[in-house]
Predict the structure.
Amino acid sequence: MISAGFSSALCVRPVVSFSNTIRGVHNHGRVTCLATSTSSSSMTVARDAKYELESQKYELLNIIQDTQRGLVTTADQRSTIEEAMVVVEGFDAGKEIDLSKLDGTWRLQYTSAPDVLILFESAARLPFFQVGQIFQKFECQNESRGGLVHNVIKWSVPQLLEENEGATLIVSARFSCISARNIYLKFEEISLQNINISDDLQAVIAPAILPRSFLSLQILQFIQTFKAQIPVTSPERQSVGGLYYLSYLDKNMLLGRAVGGGGVFIFTRAHALIC
């Protein structure tokens, strides 16, 4: 049952003056203008922030370009690189890892990790050893809390294998997200594949002046398709693992830190890689 007070309230027609109507129109226009102004200001702020981020990323890449991926650096350079990394990391602080962005192939541009620098140092000292491009390939497109990562190292032995791309060493690991930014890597396998022998070695195996015999062709094919796989895990031993902190991630740059003083890494997106 509806009360009498509520019923009479329903029957009272509100009085709206012409001046109130005009004032309402003006106020509505003012609110619209304020909303448009606020939206425009937000877009300007976002555009400026994006420009500043890209400028800082460019500055970071510019600083590291003459370091030979970290092999040739002074203490002052390493300090400057660290400061530039911190600035870029600040734009992405606190955000959770986006595995859809992480998925794909990343090319190493700089590192201070001792276990990687020793490869560069060996190549610089030894004339029979070359280190080409180094990649990290993440496979996690349809995953929610982890996936696979392949550390891919292109290397060569001059005169025996093609320069810089003579063979491929792949260290594969399964990773899991243990916090918003930390992933834990559990290494599973080391493999050697994609062996591309030099023209000089092919000439030794099958001289160009003679028709290639069935045996020489078999040897060439065996070398080129050779793939050695060594499991890191076994029932008798525990898998080697490592903690990795992804400090910055977007569609074309990945910054990482090996937890425990293992060094920093700077990657940029690579368009394609065949492992």
Helices lie at 4-11, 18-64, 75-89, 99-102, 114-125, 199-205, 214-225. The two ends are 78 Å apart (CA to CA). The CA atoms of residues 216 and 270 lie 36 Å apart. The chain has seven helices and nine strands.
